[in-house]
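Anyone up for a design puzzle?
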């Protein structure tokens, strides 16, 4: 496929995705099968609205800026640019969804060894039209922005295998994902462990001998080092300029409100929640075909790579 034709098709996918996310942006989806609590939108843009309207972030004791500072800052920028309102608040998840789409295609192109252009287009088309992702991209909640930073970090990490400086972007985006929503901690653990494992494979001969693995290239090793450097620099900056100056508020909202006030954390409670997940979450219970199809495709990819 020529570069010109690939760009035209990628632009068409992006245009279709933009239309699905922006037409009648004030409207909610016809149902809540994607697990979105729509009345939460006002709560999570609370501080951004305060700053845009009255010039002060805090007017009461509900301050999600300390839970989702990156999302709050982006919402504040949207309110300052377009005014305060429903569609203005939803421009942030719309932009996040489209950026995630672009990053996914770039990452798939970088990670693919065969038919990279087609792989990127197929992945982009699936994400562009996925109902769950479209619905979340139309809600002024932080999940779309968190996921966007995760996808950007993954794509940058994939591209770093050829151009190591992308590792700086990967590490920084992973930190921004966490400070958009702490649920991104799982991804931070994954990308840090992978970078450390790459360095160990390159530096420790015992690891290569014991596990019978090949040594990564110098480019891959540099990418791992730069990813850790980007992560450390970004985390240090956020801690120095945001977390430490507001430590009492940060600790209160991120631990006392989100951890200690929740139900018990014993094994029985974990089993109850895990077993109820496929039933309580409509994303799983109403999308069995998508779930099973994705699982089957994953199995094919894994066994195909081994063969």
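Challenge accepted. My sequence:
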């Amino acid at each position: 496929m020529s570069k010109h034709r690939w760009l035209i098709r990628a632009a068409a996918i992006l245009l279709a995705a933009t239309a699905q996310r922006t037409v009648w942006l004030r409207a909610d989806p016809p149902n809540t099968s994607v697990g979105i609590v729509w009345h939460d939108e006002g709560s999570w843009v609370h501080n951004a609205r305060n700053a845009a309207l009255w010039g002060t972030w805090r007017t009461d004791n509900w301050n999600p800026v300390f839970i989702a500072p990156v999302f709050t800052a982006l919402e504040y920028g949207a309110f300052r640019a377009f005014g305060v309102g429903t569609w203005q608040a939803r421009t942030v998840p719309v932009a996040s969804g489209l950026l995630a789409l672009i990053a996914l295609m770039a990452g798939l192109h970088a990670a693919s060894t065969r038919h990279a252009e087609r792989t990127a287009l197929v992945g982009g088309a699936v994400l562009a039209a996925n109902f769950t992702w479209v619905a979340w991209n139309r809600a002024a909640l932080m999940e779309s922005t968190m996921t966007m930073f995760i996808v950007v970090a993954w794509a940058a990490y994939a591209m770093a295998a050829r151009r190591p400086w992308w590792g700086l972007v990967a590490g920084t985006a992973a930190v921004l994902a966490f400070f958009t929503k702490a649920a991104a901690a799982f991804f931070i653990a994954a990308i840090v462990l992978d970078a450390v494992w790459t360095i160990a494979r390159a530096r420790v001969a015992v690891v290569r001998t014991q596990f019978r693995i090949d040594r990564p290239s110098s480019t891959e090793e540099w990418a791992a080092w730069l990813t850790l450097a980007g992560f450390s620099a970004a985390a240090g900056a956020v801690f120095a300029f945001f977390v430490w100056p507001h430590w009492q508020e940060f600790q209160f909202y991120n631990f006392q409100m989100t951890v200690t006030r929740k139900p018990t954390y014993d094994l029985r409670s974990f089993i109850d929640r895990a077993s109820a997940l496929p039933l309580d979450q409509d994303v799983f219970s109403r999308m069995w075909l998508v779930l099973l199809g994705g699982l089957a495709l994953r199995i094919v990819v894994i066994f195909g790579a081994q063969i």
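A detail worth pointing out: Residues 86-111 form the longest helix (26 residues).
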